ABC transporter ATP-binding protein
Amino acid sequence: MSGSVDASGGGGAVPLVELAGAGFSYPDGPPVLRGVDFAVPAGRSLALLGRNGSGKTTLMRLLSGGLRCGEGRLLLDGEPVGHGRAGLTRLRTTVQLVVQDPDDQLFAASVGQDVSFGPMNLGLPEPEVRARVAEALDALDISALEDRPTHLLSYGQRKRAAIAGAVAMRPRVLILDEPTAGLDPHGQERLLAVLERLRESGTTVVMATHDVDLALRWADDAAVLSPAGLRTGPVAELLADRELLDAARLRRPWAMAAEEVLRAHGLLEAGRPGPRTPEELDRWAVPA
């Protein structure tokens, strides 16, 4: 359960999507989230971290409109989101959630049909739907799979097909629940390259993950859920906070330990960021 909240937004700019004083409880259950203030600013990559049961999935579903706040408000571009048809359509063309298991999302006979479902539901003309499908398949590097039955895809291909369905909606915010879970190292790197291209094209990406090393390497900002509440801020700052990590039952990133050793031996100057990947660590470990 979340309690008091220490959250930060994106400077003076109006966040793309925001929860203000949000709370939620499932029927006959205790509060999962309470008094949450959480802002997603444009142009940033954000890692959402926390132990199992901390409320990450609930938070993502509140942001995407899959759940309705029991208290507080959901804001889009600073304006409250209505839960009528017009309000939810506006939200879902701006914010898209991709769930962890692609089999919970894929349902159509072929990849192309599945990716086209969202745009078709918007009532777009057929040429626009075809253009969006082609664009999304290309962005996820799965154009060759357009006519393939979804049940014949590998797990990594199913992950990318599910993301393509969300990308076809051209959202400004893409929320991903554990997108690298179940992927081998090569599959993870391919997916991260796709996310980087989406970021470069202007999509704000929020990723829920248990992988603190991935969060430190990939994200600009982090949001950490613990029994004390939600804290947000620069990813390196939050993942250096041992008390916060202990409360959230997260381990310390290996890169933080490496940075500490490098500084202790005078190999990393004050103010200079430490390595975030093994390749970056080689710059210090291997003599020039």
Summary: The chain has two domains: 15-98+171-251, 108-170. Residues 1-11 have pLDDT under 50 and may be disordered. Strands lie at 17-25, 31-40, 45-50, 71-76, 79-80, 95-98, 173-177, 204-208, 221-226, 229-234. The CA atoms of residues 279 and 285 lie 10 Å apart.
